[in-house]
Amino acid sequence: MALTDVAITGSGFHFTWTGLANLQTVLADAAAWQALANTLVFIMGSVAGSLIAGLAAALLVDRAVALLPIARNVMIWPAVIAPVVVSLIWLLILSPTAGGWNKVLATFGIPEQNWLDTEFGAMTSVIVVDIWHWSPVVFLFIYTALKGIGEELLEAARVDGASEGAILRRIVLPLLLPAIGTVALVRVVMGVKVFDEMYLLTAGGPNGATTLVSQRIQLWFFQDLQYGNAAAFSLVVIVLTVALLLVAVLARRARRAA
C-alpha cells in the first residue's frame, strides 16, 4: 500500500504502482510533522512521569509492613481498567462544569478551568491520564527487580555506616537500572501506539495539539480513505521507533561493557 495508489471498487482493492510518491506526500505534510512532534512531547512526558511515579511507588511499597498485601494489589488497579473506561472516568474528573477536579479547586477559591480546551492544558491532561493509567506497569517491573536485591548486601552497607540515602543512590538505583531501562523501552512503544484515551478525551484537538501518529494514521485511513499515505506514514513511524529502540539497546550494551 505504501508504494501504490489504492482504490476500492465493487470488485475489491485495486493497486496502482506509484513508487515513493506517498512517502514524499507524507514528508511534505505539515499535519504529519505536527503529529510526530506531538507524539515526541507525549512520550517524553508520559514515560518520564510514569518512571518517576512507578519508582517512587515501588520504593514506598517495599517499605510497607502492615498494609503490604493491600498496597501491592491497589497499585495495579489502574492498569487493568480498559482505556475506554479510563477515558470516561477522566472526562468526568476534568469536566469544566461538573468535574471533580474543578470542585476541589473551587473549595480553595480557584476558578473553574477548561482543562481540555487549550493546547497546553489538553496535552498536559492526556499525559497525566496516561501516567495514571500505566504507572502500575512501571511499578511491577521495578518492584520485582527491587525484591531481587539481596538483603545481605543492604545490611552489609548499613553495618559499614552507609545512610539510607547513600544506599539508595549507590546500591539500589544502580541495580535497578536494567529494569528501569527495560520498562522505559516498553513505555516508549506504548506511547507510540496509544490511541483510545487521546481519541476519546480530545479527539486530537484543540487545533491538532493532541493528534498523535496513531490518530494521524487513523484519519488518513478511515476518514480520508488515503490508504497509501496511511501505510507510508505507518512505515515512517515504525522505522523511527525501531531506530530509537536500537540506539537505546546499543547504549545499554555499551554501558554494560564499560
Give a short overview.
The chain is mainly alpha-helical and about 260 residues long. The protein has helices at about 20-25, 30-65, 70-75, 85-95, 100-105, 120-145, 150-160, 165-195, 195-200, 215-225, 225-255; strands spanning about 5-10, 10-15. The protein has a two-stranded antiparallel ribbon with strand order 1-2.
Task: Give, in spatial order, the strands making up the sheet with the most strands.
Answer: 1-2
Overall, the morphology is globular
Helical coverage, percent range: over 70%
Percent of residues in beta strands: under 5%
Identify low-pLDDT runs. none
Q: What value does the average pLDDT take?
A: 89
| Largest sheet geometry | 2 strands, antiparallel
Summarize the helix and strand pattern as letters. EEHHHHHHHHHHH
Radius of gyration: 23 Å
**Distance, first to last CA:** 44 Å
Keywords:
258 residues; mainly alpha; 11 helices
Fold topology:
Layout: E1 4-9, E2 12-17, H1 21-27, H2 30-63, H3 68-75, H4 83-94, H5 100-107, H6 119-147, H7 151-159, H8 164-193, H9 196-201, H10 213-223, H11 227-257
Antiparallel strand pairs: 1-2
